[in-house]
Amino acid sequence: MKCATLKIRLLALCLFAVSGAVAQTAPEDLVRNRDRAAGIYHSYEYLPGADVPAPKGYEPFYISHYGRHGSRYHISQAAYEQPLKALRKAAAAGTLTPRGEEILAVAEALAEDARLRYGDLSPRGVGEHRGIAERMFAAYPEVFSTARGRECLVECRSTLVPRCILSMSAFSERLKELNPAIRITRDASARYLDYMANGTAQNAVNKEAGRVADSVFHAWVHPERVIGVLTTDPSSIGDPDKFVHRLFNLLSIMQDASHLGLEPFYDLFTDEELYDLWAAENVRRYLQMGPSARFGEGIVADARPLLRNIVETAQEVIDGKLPLSASLRFGHDTYIIPLLALMGVEHASARESDLAEVASVWSVERVSPMAANLQLVFFRHPKTGDVRVRVLHNEHDANLPIEGGPYYPWPVLKAYFEALCQ
Questions:
Q1: Are the beta carbons of 311 and 421 closer than 8 angstroms?
Q2: Least enclosed by CB within 10 Å: which of 46, 103, 231, 333?
Q3: CA gap 6, 290 in Å, rounded
Q4: CA atoms of 10 and 374, how far apart (whole Å)
Q5: Does the pTM exceed 0.90?
């Protein structure tokens, strides 16, 4: 019965992908790139897209940005120690298979590298933000130009978490390397947390959302075969659901610690098992941070102060009251995910009540991989003063439910955003 249900669910998702109705994660996506199964832990995957030239005569003059920190270590020691403890226990009992011993060696190496670095930005995370900054500079050189005496002031703000501060540093350092004449301010202050880190509703529903997600994981993920590959005595591993969940999270973070050169153990799972693990965790993030029908209303509303700050700061720049070339903000998945949903960004804002259909409308590794970013690039016509805005999500044009894209007239976009903030 479980096998039949799985096949029906996979077939439905494939049909979604083939029809083109929703460009979200289908089983074959994970076959092509298994790193995507890491979901919220997926390292930033830059995929060049077709560039759309600005309307004739319009020149970029300002960029407003919000970015998630780059690739990191797991935030807790338990994320490494719990699966490691189970594997060590089985090893002590003499029940680990040769494959189990290989996985134990990998887990030991990951835990040692992460020791006292929990939640820290990894070397890969530094590189991700340097790369995004470099591409931003190359795409919009006018914004960062200091030719003929032009002033270029970049304002950077971060939450108080070290991985976000270091992401801000990596990004701004690369800009400074590309043009040493740029003036950059950097702040990490509690003064800005009312809009940089406003997650009241998420905190209120997190426990219940996690309970629902756990029930989904139990229903969709069947760990028996995997445990049988690792040990001759499944009882030596402990709770099978918890063990496989923790082991999968350990596998997922490996790409963020790519400096170790370890080979991810994706082959431990079949294609179907890997997809089920991804799908269950995708539902978890959707319920905890996304626009779900059950919990999403308050979570999405929490992003209003951030969107309001983006609008108000941009208007001050347009009016000449604030001499900024760029506003760069650095935070977390828990804030960029609700922001994208509030804005109505296509593939990031669907309100789905059927958890079996979440994968057909929302994919966390597409919405918020490590270093996920939103860029609003402002263009102005020097003769008319008219302003247009290009909205980019992870460096690709983001479709909004209003007319005028991909270069939206600012009065239209501003009115739309202000209505969302009410």
A1: yes
A2: 46
A3: 24
A4: 31
A5: yes
Quick one: pLDDT band at residue 391, thresholds 50, 70, 90?
A: very high
- pLDDT number for residue 23: 53
d(C-alpha 140, C-alpha 151), whole Å: 15
Peptide bond preceding 406: is omega within 30 degrees of 0, i.e. cis?
A: yes
Q: Is 49 exposed, middle or buried (0-12, 13-18, 19+ CB in 10 A)?
A: exposed
Residue 261 contacts by C-beta under 8 Å, 6 or more apart in sequence?
none
In the chain, the percentage of residues whose pLDDT exceeds 90 is 91
